[in-house]
Amino acid sequence: MEALVVGAGVVGLAIARVLARRGAAVIVAEAAEAIGTGVSARSSEVIHGGMYYPPGSLRARHCVEGRHRLVDFCESHGVPYRLCGKLIVATSEAERPTLEAILARGIDNGVESLHLLERKEAVALEPALSCVAALYSPATGIVDSHALMLALLGDVEDAGGVLALRTPIEAAERRAGRWHVRFGGAAAGELQVDGLVNAAGLGAQSLARRIEGLAPAAVPRQVLAKGSYFGCAGRPAFTRLIYPAPVEGGLGIHLTLDLAGRMRFGPNVEWVEAPDYAVDATRAECFAAAIRRYWPGLPDDRLTPDYAGIRPKLSGPGEPAADFRIDGPAEHGLPGFVQLFGIESPGLTSSLSLAEAVADRLMM
């Protein structure tokens, strides 16, 4: 099989890796000048546990399975990561039922080692923390996402796959049992492949509309959620990730760490019409107020604008969070074509598991 994977983010590279290792001749087409410059470059770099998502959902299944695959991959490929653990905190008794519901959901999803801590136990782990209770996930961690993508690309190339940067895909149609794909760039042209994967992230819906024969109803709406992050100068006050009880549209302004131990906070949720990566420095005060609910010792004027990301959601404000979508021939009727929509958090954690599912559908 000859296959074209569109999108060189973490999910696209993971899919290309599986296809190449299964014997396919793979090309990864990326419109940008480097791998992982979109959604993958602007995440929290968290290895999620899988306790937030409805049992039986694609997000739950692929997050839990993907975390195990991801940790094994990091170990075997020397990708920097650390299972530092995470505390999801209730800052009032009114939030305790939320933690209990997340615990029950996590158990149903097969997340190991989750347990509820009372205030004294949580503060013993993180003395700077303020809470009435906390849900502890020791299996949650952080990863160097760029090193991960480089390692995935290395496996793709070792198996004979090819990366084509600055290669936007303009159109594709199915003729005589193959996909005829027109691409742009400095060496614009056309190629033929047996299998086509749309893993274009923020551009997935736009690409889908350029697939000849794909019904408009097969392209879901895309809702963009911007999330900004603020850095925090000074010595880290925590050794674990700290998450508040979830809020509409996301998991709240949480504390994450990078592999050097530096703290950063975010993301908030802003519903936007188009990608915008500017961080509004005036939002520091709102961030600080949210952070002080679980870290009252946050010093004044410590937060500095860091970066922002855009999540390609399938649901908007006030709506239940939509699941991942993996649409193959059974869903849209086009042979040799798989497309992914709504791959936001926990997409990085889920990437290696999603890749197996996509390869199964493409090569069946």
From TrEMBL:
Stored Pfam families: DAO
InterPro entries per UniProt: FAD-dep_OxRdtase, FAD/NAD-bd_sf
GO MF: (S)-2-hydroxyglutarate dehydrogenase activity
Domain FAD dependent oxidoreductase: start-end pairs: 3-361
Transport recorded as keyword: no
Keyword Phosphoprotein set for record: no
Domain of life: Bacteria
Keyword entries, A-Z: FAD, Flavoprotein, Oxidoreductase
Family under the similarity heading: Belongs to the L2HGDH family.
Name of this protein: Oxidoreductase, FAD-binding family protein
